[in-house]
């Protein structure tokens, strides 16, 4: 029933990407900078070791 619905924003973005194909390429490059990153296992180990134990109740005074 509502499967064909697209919001105005989605329609605008789709139309914009059709008119500016270079933006789609740039979008993939930017995604690679933020999301498609390989994690360094040594750094991850250090981050895990640096975590402090969490209190059972945050607002309980010590």
TrEMBL record:
Pfam families: DUF3460
Protein name as annotated: DUF3460 domain-containing protein
Organism for this UniProt entry: Simonsiella muelleri ATCC 29453
